[in-house]
User: Fold this.
Amino acid sequence: MRAFTALEGVVMPIDRANVDTDMIIPKQFLKSIKRSGFGPYLFDELRYLDKGEPDMDCTHRPLNTEFSLNHERYAGANILLSRQNFGCGSSREHAPWALDDFGFRCLIAPSFADIFFNNCFKNGILPIQLSDEIVDQLFDVVDETEGFSLAVDLASQTITLPDGSSIAFEVDSFRKHCLLNGLDDIALTLEDADQIRAFEVGHKQKAPWLYR
Amino acid sequence: MAGKTLYDKLWDQHLVTQREDGTALIYIDRHLIHEVTSPQAFEGLRIAGRKPWRTAANIATPDHNVPTTTVERLEGLEGIEDEISRIQIQTLDDNCDELGITEFKINDIRQGIVHVVGPEQGATLPGMTVVCGDSHTSTHGALGALAHGIGTSEVEHVLATQCLLAKKMKNMLIRIDGKLRNGVTAKDLVLAIIGKIGTAGGTGYAMEFGGEAIRDLSVEGRMTVCNMAIEAGARAGMIACDQKTIDYCKGRPLAPQGEDWALAEKSWLDWCSDDDAVFDHVVEMRAEDIAPQVTWGSSPEMVASITDRVPVPAEETDPTRRQSLERALEYMGLNGGQLIKDIPLDKVFIGSCTNSRIEDLRAAAAVVQGQQVSTKIKLAMVVPGSGLVQKQAESEGLNDIFTAAGFEWREPGCSMCLAMNADKLQEGEHCASTSNRNFEGRQGFGGRSHLVSPAMAAAAAIAGRFVDVREMGEG
Ligand code: SF4
Assistant:
């Protein structure tokens, strides 16, 4: 996995609660057997006025100019700001793949849905949970300040604002360790292969039918 | 010391190792696989030169992309018109063949929606840990199992290690005491729960459903409830194992047999929460208070009783909620204050892993029998959850009841639940749907889904609008 250490960039807001994974990447794009190439279809139904299909050339599609992703002022944004329960719904990992492919590496919201949250860490994306109050304030400054950007530092668990003030955030220590070092979960788990085998021996005694 | 919850017990029994930082390695007994979330995982495995840890723990079936019209299904895989769908299903076949994973392929009678197939085959059983790259894996918790959805990276992780990296969730109990009224089903029950606690109410929790009304449900009804735990934010929903669960599992192809069965049956009754178990959060509801439910918005929590009205945004004081309410009504083409019964309908869909089992089809057929689908309805379809459900329904003549009334009788698959195949809503169309998600665009670009029980969907098809199934005589 690619490591995540620090990031500085423009913040793009999506001011709605319950942004679900169907919204992040609609199902017709899930037919792909690849992990990449989803960026042009990120938020497809919010972003374009016509209906997107897999492998479509998006360069000439009609844009929904009301959607923040199409606003010039957020061009090149790599931090996404949204409301509670971000990433709810389907478990599709295509959602973080699409966010990543588009260029978002860090997400900020008051809460995230469990499966999505987990999927982000497996893909080198840092989801940051902040209080409703702070998220409200961020929405305000993002709105007021063209080109508003933040600097996120994972090691020190801080977000630094342009005025030099900073916000601390929480992150699970194991996930932080994996993100900082770009560690592959599977290789780590396989270091415990003997323990897994030992577990299986005991488990099989208790429930032999599971191993028939 | 306080007793343990069902979740605590399942967790403890599958704990391989607990790390200092709070993460744990949890052993997975059953891994279910479908075509959409697995190709990248198999590819990852191949690139790293790894093999499945325990091949026999995996079972696969294609469901999301399979066409459901009989004509298109005749030719099997080759007959799938959508090339991208065909390639995805072919990829699943190839991966399973290469690695020796059991797969119920497209026209195998055992093929179907992965969450219908698992319990039906006895592939998911009490006391198991079950995962699948699909959020509705919570369904299998109805058997007294720990079951939840995972992402594709985790699919690869489970394939390679038979384990999952996890952190223990908190315990929540949803207790429904009393008896459900006639015409009120498991689906109405779970929609009412989501209406009460919200779509994020269960985030971070393993959610156990208990109480008299839950115990009274059939095992299939319990699956409907657990299926939608994820719509309440809980990755895992579960219900204690009891004699009904055991009877349900008995004799299924992959269920234990002979001596194993005797041993299993004895141990399974322990898969319940201890009387003195402590939950971090308890929600209580009375079954009698629940009426048939209909969602009016674009989130499962936007739900009302059939006798109610669509809420009025101006009456909502919280600005974020008001905004999402307004947006939902605009998307749904509804007015605040409008009667639920006045919502116009274009299509009816009976199917999905929530409600496509034999009891669901029986409940719908009982309402439909001898009636005609309203001329206002452009399409009414029934999509059985598996080939075996389809066969059973046909042997009971349910298909004839549906087709005589003007319903289409389809081949098994996910179908219009997420509209990855040709079954979808057109822009602006309203659909009475027995599925689990009414998100924007879920059932087709611009489509408007209203989640209901099979009986309510059937009644809506006949009436051409939502009606209270309790007023339809039989109910
Ligand atoms: S029926 Fe619908 S919810 Fe269930 S697995 Fe298929 S697509 Fe997902």
User: Anything to note?
Assistant: The CA atoms of residues 7 and 151 of chain A lie 6 Å apart. Chain A is about 30% helix and 15% strand.
